[in-house]
C-alpha cells in the first residue's frame, strides 16, 4: 500500500470542498472529481469519506442517499475489476465505471419513483443528460489536474511518444463509444408505440365481456349457438365502436343486437369498461416504449459525445521538421526549454503545435509568450488552446497551441413586437465557441406573446446548454426534438434556425427546421438559403438537412423570423424574392445598419402595423490582419 503524501492529502481535502458545489440537487462535478482521484491516489477510503462529508453538507437527504449509493457502487465495481485487471485501474477504465454507474443509477431511481415514473424520467431526461455530459468532461479535466499535481502523467503513459499515446487514448474512447451505442441499440429492439389494440387483445376483451355478461343469461345458448356468426359480428362491432367513441350510448348499438340481446345495457357497460382498461394499458405501454426510445436516444447521444471527443484527437501525421526545430531553438533563446515538440493539422486545416516544456527556476514565462514565438516561426498568429496552463512552470508539462482563426465576426440585430403584445415570441442567441466557430440560432415560437416567448426561450436555452456542454449540433437537435416530442404540450412548436460559421475557413453550415429563408449578401450579390424541414417535435424523427455555403471577407449572413417576410405582403411565394431584391439594392455597410434597414423596410411595407413578431439577425465576416 502506498503512503499518503502531502499532495494526496491536498487532493482529499479538495474533494470535500468540491462536493459542496451542487446544481439543482445534482452533483456531477463532485462525482467526477471523486472518480478521477480514486484512480490516481492512495487513501481511497479517506477520499470517499471526504466526498460524502461535502455532499452531506450541500445536498438534501434524498439526493445524499442517491449519491452515497452511487459512490459505493463505483467503489465496489472498481474493487471487483481490480482483481480481474492486474494492471490496476487506469483513468479511462475509471471513467467508464463512472458513466455506467451514473446511467444505471438514473434508470434505477427513475423506476423507484412510483406512480408516474415514466413521465418523471421524461421530465428529468435533459437534466440527466447534461449531468452525465458535465461529469464526463469534468472527469478528464480533474484527471489531468490531479496527475499534474502529482508531478506525473496518468498511469501507463509516462514515457510514451505523443502519437502512440494519442492513438491508445483514441482507441479506448472509441471502445467506450461503441459500448454505449450497442447499449442504445439494445433498448431500441422490438420497441415501437402502437396506435390501436392488436387482434389478440381484441380477442381477449371479446372473451372477457361475453364470459362476464352472457354465461348465466337465459338466451346464451340461442345467441352463441343458433345465431353464432351474427352475435360475434355484433359484439366485435360494439367493441370497435367503444374504442372510437368515449361516451357510447345504447342507441349507438347495432339495431339487430338491441332487438335480440336482453342484457344490452350490461353488455355495453362491460364493453366500455374493458375497452377503457385496454386503452389505458395501451397508453401506458406506449409511454413505456417512448421512455425506452428516449433512454436509447440518450445512450446514443452519450456515445456521440464520447465519439466526438475521440475524433478531436488528431489522426494526422505528426510533423517534426525544420520549422519545429527552429521553434525549439527560438523558445530556448527565451529561456523556455523544450523536451518534445510535434505539429499536426486538424480536419479543417487548422495547425496545432504541442510541446513538453519548462522554465528555469526564478524565471516566469507565459504560454502566450511561447505562442507568439511559435507564431513567428510559422508566419501566423498562434494561441494557447483551451485548458493549457497560462504560465509555464518549472517542471515538465504538456502545452498545446493552435493557429488563430483567420476571421472575426460582427453581429447586428433588430426586433419588433407584434402590435398589441408586450413581449416577442422570437428568441435568438449568438455563441462564440472555443473551437473557433460562431453559432447563431433563432427560434420563432408558435403564435405570439408570453406563451410563444416561453417556448422559443426553451428551445434556445436547451441549445445553448447542450452546445456549451460538448454536444455537437446534430446530437443537440435530436435531443431537443425528443424533448419537444415527449412534452406535455405536443401541439406547441417553435422553429429552429441554426447557423455555424467556421472562423478559420469561412465555411457556413445552416440547419433550418420550419424557419424562414436566410440570405448571404456580398455587395449587390445575394444568395438565398431555404429548407422544407418541419419544426422540432412535429415528426417522429427530426428533419435536419445541412445547407452549406462558403463565405468570404465582407459577406453578411442574414437570418430572420417569418414575421419579417410576412410584413412584405400577403403573397408568400413572392416575399422571399422581394427581400432578395431589397438586399441587392441596400447600401448598408455594417451588420447593425443592415439589420435596421431590413426591419424598417418590412415595417414600412406593412404600414407600421406588425401582424407578427419580427426579428432580424445579421452576422458579418471580416478577415483578421496577418501577423
Automatic annotation (TrEMBL):
InterPro entries: Bact_Sigma-Reg, PPM-type-like_dom_sf, PPM-type_phosphatase-like_dom, SpoIIE_N. The keyword Transmembrane applies. The chain crosses the membrane at residues 6-24, 31-58, 64-81, 88-112, 132-149. Its EC number is 3.1.3.16. It comes from the Bacteria. The keyword Transmembrane applies. Keywords: Hydrolase, Membrane, Transmembrane, Transmembrane helix. PANTHER family: STAGE II SPORULATION PROTEIN E, STAGE II SPORULATION PROTEIN E-RELATED. This is Stage II sporulation protein E (SpoIIE). It comes from Coprococcus catus GD/7. The lineage of its organism: Bacteria, Bacillati, Bacillota, Clostridia, Lachnospirales.
